[in-house]
Amino acid sequence: MAESINNVGRMTATELHARLRRGERIAVLDVRRREAWSADPGRIPGASWLPLEEVPQRVRHLPRDTQLVLYCS
Questions:
Q1: What is the distance between the alpha carbons of residues 14 and 3, in angstroms, rounded to a whole number?
Q2: Rounded to an integer, what distance in angstroms lies between the CA atom of residue 17 and that of residue 13?
Q3: Fewer CB within 10 Å: N-end or C-end of the chain?
Q4: What pLDDT sits at residue 2?
């Protein structure tokens, strides 16, 4: 059973960059398909790859004490 997701919002790349520079606890997840992820050298440094279709099965393993930012491009 998937857990509910609360407080879903959006932020710009500029805002994310500023928050990471301030040292905020943010886990960045790249949710693109493998083909798109592996073909793009412009990934966000420090981001983890987790395909979107796997998020529901792995949500229990994601950090609870850290803001999660999911992105695709």
A1: 29
A2: 6
A3: N
A4: 45
Cα 2 from chain centroid?
A: 17
For residue 44 the two structure tokens come to: 């966000």
Q: What is the pLDDT of residue 25?
A: 93
Below-50 pLDDT ranges, the chain: 1-3
Q: How much helix, strand and coil, in percent to the nearest 5, is found in the chain?
A: 35, 15, 50
pTM: 0.79
Rounded-to-integer distance, Cα 3 and Cα 26, Å:
20
Nearest to 69 by CA among 1, 3, 18, 35: 18
pLDDT digits (tens, 9 = 90+) for 10-27: 999 999 999 999 999 999
**Edge-first strand listing for the sheet containing 48-49:** 48-49, 26-30, 67-71
